[in-house]
Design goal:
The chain is an alpha/beta fold. It has a single domain, classed as 3-Layer(aba) Sandwich (Rossmann fold). The protein has nine helices and five strands, in the order βαβαααβαβαααβα. The chain starts with a strand and ends with a helix. The model has no long low-confidence stretch (mean pLDDT 89).
């Protein structure tokens, strides 16, 4: 299996679909959100720095994220591919990830873009805030995160298109249907 970059707006289901892909294909999984939340919970120096950015709805600096990802990537078993969940979020990060992987004689693989309308995203994030008690999921912060996504992250889709690895999947109201479409595509890559 190739490496996979799962891409989409906050609340689009990157973590949910990543978990399903990992279960089905036995891939490694790097969730930048999980890695950062673990650092925050441990109150490490990285966690304190990351919390400042996250609380303001901002992205973590690229150098910091690439160092974390390289360390995590190198710790995973090789051969089954890795799914990158929540990274890259900018063109500079994508170029840095491509370089980091090339240094290991690996490729980015494919980008799976999850397209979901913003009203559905807001509903999901507010519901997640209630269920998980996540302080970073309130309406004001979510709106900031959407703005950051549209201004800084969304333009990355065109970069993936130029790389020839962009594959889009549009939400049609059913997680099962979305998953079936993604699996059908990934099964062609084996």
């Amino acid at each position: 299996m190739k490496n996979i970059i799962i891409f989409g707006a906050p609340g689009s289901g990157k973590g949910t679909y990543s978990d399903e892909i990992v279960t089905r294909y036995g891939m490694g999984h790097i969730s930048t959100g999980d890695v950062l939340r673990a650092e925050i919970k441990q109150e490490s120096e990285l966690g304190k720095i990351a919390q400042g950015y996250i609380s303001n709805g901002q992205l973590i600096p690229d150098e910091l994220m690439i160092d974390i990802l390289a360390k995590t990537y190198d710790s995973l078993p090789t051969g089954k591919g890795v799914i990158f969940d929540g990274f890259p979020r900018t063109i500079a990060q994508a170029e840095a990830l491509k370089k980091m992987l090339a240094e290991r004689n690996h490729e980015m693989g494919v980008m799976i873009e999850l397209i979901v309308d913003e009203e559905t995203l807001m509903e999901r994030l507010l519901r997640r805030a209630q269920i998980e008690g996540r302080a970073d999921d309130n309406e004001e912060t979510i709106k900031k995160r959407f703005a950051v996504y549209h201004n800084q992250t969304e333009p990355l889709a065109a970069w993936f298109e130029k790389e020839g690895i962009r594959h889009t999947f549009t939400w049609e109201g059913s997680k099962d249907q979305m998953l079936a479409n993604i699996f059908a595509f990934l099964d062609t890559l084996k």
